């Protein structure tokens, strides 16, 4: 990931003062920043005379990262989305659809396995 000093020209809050503060916490790149404890960083920033500007720099760096990737989703949100998204594609066979709980779930890979001559190819066709 990008070193912090490469952001200085485009983002004025990521100045040498901010970079020195980050370096005191072994943060030299955006990756280092993302791996660091944000609460500890904000607490440490509050102890400095330029605390407001440091906090603004931290929030600016977070907004830069947020703009470059989709929002992070935790496991509980993924589970809720999975349970809410009940769109199925019918296999054309009522028995298989019932066995699969409604058919093939969109967005998932369903693998058919079984012994030779058990009908896997016929299901595919």
UniProtKB/TrEMBL annotation:
GO molecular function: ATP binding; ATP-dependent DNA damage sensor activity; four-way junction DNA binding; single-stranded DNA binding
Highest taxon above the source species: Eukaryota
Official protein name in the record: DNA repair protein rad51d, variant 6
PROSITE patterns: RECA_2
Subcellular location: Nucleus
GO biological process: DNA strand invasion; double-strand break repair via homologous recombination; reciprocal meiotic recombination; telomere maintenance
Domain RecA family profile: 85-125
Keywords noted in UniProt: Nucleus
Cellular component GO terms held in the UniProt record: microtubule organizing center; Rad51B-Rad51C-Rad51D-XRCC2 complex; replication fork
UniProt key word Protein biosynthesis: no
Keyword Zinc: no
